[in-house]
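User: Modeling request: complex.
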Amino acid sequence: MNLLQILQNTTKADRILILFLLISCFSFIIFFNKIFSNKQSIHIYSEGKEVYILSLNENNKVDIKGRLGITTVEIKDKKVRITSSPCENKLCIKQGWKDSGSIICLPNNIIVSIGEYKKEGSGIDAVTK
Amino acid sequence: MQLQNKYQIALLSAFAIGIHSIENLLPSPIPWLRFGLANIITLITLYLFGFRAAFTVTLIRTFISSLINGTFPGPAYIMSLGGGITATISMWLIISLIPQLFSAVGISVIGAFFHNIMQLFIAYFLLIQRIEPIILVSPFIVLAGTIAGTINGIVAELVIKNLKKQIEPT
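Assistant: Request completed. Predicted assembly structure:
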């Protein structure tokens, strides 16, 4: 029994199924890339929960309630900054305008992230070492 | 269950565990992208010994290989278990409902597909809880699953044909 015989023994339904799955996968990849690409968004997390998803392209100003009080985030010209914060050392405000990465205010427990904020080690089905 | 059947289940489980463990040692570009070679054993068991044997082999295989890899109660174990059970049930349903439509290659592809879908569901409920990354990654996973399933199916078909040849004349 060699490989060619196996391939000849596959039924029509087999080939149709495999072809259908391959084609639909490729078309979905192209389709999703069109939908999700060049849509930079800002994700704001308060105390670990996602509270806002904003577009980077629109100017905006939002207040977020954190652990200590209210933090104000401003979006302007595809850049983002924190304008006021109740924390002590104001490191988040000193970071200024950002167009990539993230601004994190630790005392107030707020994360402003451009794009998705990736938690370490959240991969699927990883091998524990 | 007869005694002989028990021996065969033990032997097939041992094969499946061995293949699964060796596969875990192989380097892969993404940690959770694997060939699912243990599915070959499940498919062979399903064809030669029926659904109950295949289900038992899947349960034993997921349990013991998770103990070996040290992932026992974690999400990786639940994903492996859920995927394995779904794949076995779906392959059995297709074999028993429409027996002549697909060869082992098609059955293997179907099993791989449902395995992937179930794993994505479990990943959504247990790990990620956001639907966009799951949707984004799903076509890649299903694509990889289809390719791996085709290769597994060809191997399984070879083994089944040869085993049947050896069993039938005696």
